[in-house]
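Standup, Tuesday
Yesterday: got the pipeline producing C-alpha cells again.
Today: sanity-check two examples.
Blockers: none.

Example 1:
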Amino acid sequence: MTETIIEHFPVGPLQCNCVILGDRQTNRALVVDPGGEGERILARLDELGLTCSGIIHTHAHFDHVGATADVQHATGAPCMLHEGDLFLYNALQMQLDTFGVPLRAPEVVEIDRFLTDGDAVSAGAAEVGVVHTPGHTPGSLCFHAHGDRPVLIAGDTLFQQSIGRTDLWGGDASQILDSIRTRILTMPDETLVITGHGPTTTVGEERAKNPYLQSG
C-alpha cells in the first residue's frame, strides 16, 4: 500500500474512530464510519487532497453513522452498509433515546449499495475486502486492506483486549466469538486492527492477550 493513505481519528459523542483510506495516485478515498463531526471529516479530506468516492459502514449504530448525510451531501459519494443492519439505520432516534443522548437523530440518506461477505470496495487503487462478522449487530462488517502490512478496520467487533457489546439490538454473544475466531484470528498476527473505539491493536496481540478469546 505504498500509494495508500490510511488514518483514523475519533469523532462524535462516543468518539467513534472514523477512518480515511485514500489512494494518492487518483486522490480518491473511502470514508469508513463517519460517526459525527462531518465538517471535521470533510476538512481532513481537503487537507489530504482527497475526494471521497465511497462511504462505508462497519455497522449502523448511531455513533457510526451520525455524519453520513453530511459527507454524502458534500461529496455525492455512495453510501454502503450490510442489509442486516438496515433496521438499525432506520431507527436512529430510537437508538439515541435508548442511550439517553439528548440529540435529534441525524438525517438518513438512501443506502446506495448493500455490502455482502466477499465484496470489494475501492477508491482508485485503495481497496478493502468485505468480511461479514455478525455478533455485535446482525450486519456487522470488517474491512480488510491488503498491502505490505495488512490492516483490518474492525468496527465494534474487536477491541484491544475486549470485544463488542452483544446486549444491544440483534447482538449475539456466541456469534461474535465465532466471527472473531473464524474470520479475524485466521489473519496474520501482524495485521493492524483499527478498532471502532479506542487504540489500535494487532491480531497477534488479541490472539495472545484478549481474555474473551482464551477459552472455548
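Example 2:
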Amino acid sequence: MKHITSFLFVILIFFSSCKKDSDEELPTYLGTTLSTRITKLYDKNGEITDRAIVDRFSNTYGDFDPNMELSLMTFKFKADYLDASTVVVKSLITLEKDTMTVIKNDGLIIWESKDTSDYYTSHFDAFKYKWLHYSEVSMNGTMLITKFLYCMFLKPCGDDLLLPITYFYHRRGNYLSFSTLSSNGNNEFNPDYIAGFGNMDTVLVYEYTLRMRAQ
C-alpha cells in the first residue's frame, strides 16, 4: 500500500506540473515607443565626434529622405508568442502580420520570417547583424540579388525587447547613396564598414530604437 500511495503521489505531481506549464502565459510585446534620433558621422579615420562638423554635415546632407522619419512612425507592432519557437508579429498600422521563427543567437533574440524575400545587394557590410539564411544570385553578370529570410534583431532589456533601426547616407565624392529600411535597416550600423573608405567617403548614420514592451 505504501508503494501504491507513493506512486499516486508522483502521478499527481506530474499532472500538476503539466497543468502549470500549460497555464503559463506566453509573452506578448507591444512596440510603440520610438527613441529620439542619434546622429553619427564617419570618415575613413573613424567616427567624427566634433559636433560642429557633424551638425554642419547633417544640415547640408541630412534631409536626403525627408519622409523616412515620418515613415518610422509606422513601426508599431504587436508580437504574440504561439510557443517558445514561434511568434506572430502584426503591424498596428497596416494590420499585416508575419509568423516568424524565434532564434536565440549570441545574446540576441532573432525573429526570422518563414517567407523568402529578395533585394538588390546593397550595403550588406554596413550592418552589424547578418541574415541567418541568404544567398546571392548574379543577374546578367553585373548585379547581385540577395535572397534571404528577413530578420528582426532584438536585444533583451529587462522584460522588454529593443529593436534597433538604422538608415544612413553614404557620400562618395559626388556619388550619393543611402540605405532604406526595406533592405536591412532593422539593425545596427557596423563601424568596420569604413575600412574600405577612400579620401572622399563620408557616411552619416541615423540610429533609433523601438522598445517592445512586455504586456
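Quick observation on example 2: The chain has one domain: 26-214. Residues 1-20 have pLDDT under 50 and may be disordered.
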